[in-house]
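[Automated response] Your request has been received and processed.

Submitted sequence:
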Amino acid sequence: MPIKSYLEKIPTSKFPHHIFKQHKQQSSDAETAKNKNNNSKNNQSSGAVIAKINNIDNENVLEQRASQLKIKTLKIKKLPKNNLANKLAELALNLTKNNKERHKTIQNFFLINDSTTIATEIPVYLTNDDIKYFKKRNFKINIENYRTPVTGHIDILQIRNGLIHILDYKPDASKISPVEQLTIYALALASRTKLDLHSFKCTWFDENNYYEFYPLHAVYLKRLSVMPILEKDKRNA
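Generated structure:
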């Protein structure tokens, strides 16, 4: 199974761990430099100093992370639901000592208590070649101005009802709409596994709310087939 093969590859030397370490370090360095700049109140030129670490400025560093990208997607139908994930999140949060531990606690709780959860904190990446592949097939993806590879980590991965579900825990889920981030995760995982995008479903949730959508609908506009009409006209001619 493609998903199984991909997950088994992650702990090995064949997986490009360096791109995740590099992006994490660059983001950390840039944020540190930005904070130092903000603390330099007496330096009149401090506004122009905003961090360039290894010739990479903070804005460009952030553009490499899926959670920071701002891209346009097609209008999608957000489906609010009640799901077992809400109850599991609520139970997991009771075990959390502080907000910093929320994600890890919820991920572990799902792995132990939910039979459909197959993995958590899954690293994914989307390359320039991946983007070209989708665009060549008329997918509406405008990531040209962003640096690649785009990286990210999927909170929770499930297989149920014949679909691969990408779940992201978001506190105050009702107040946000991370469609772009989750769509990139789906594009990245589809690219790495060579699976069709219609095999995926994306979700963001907290203990009270659960929203899901089909990532295919966010980047691909279904075209009406005119072939049957043309064939009918040909027969009547």
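Summary generated for your ticket: Residues 67-237 form one domain. The two ends are 49 Å apart (CA to CA).
If you did not submit this request, please reply to this message.
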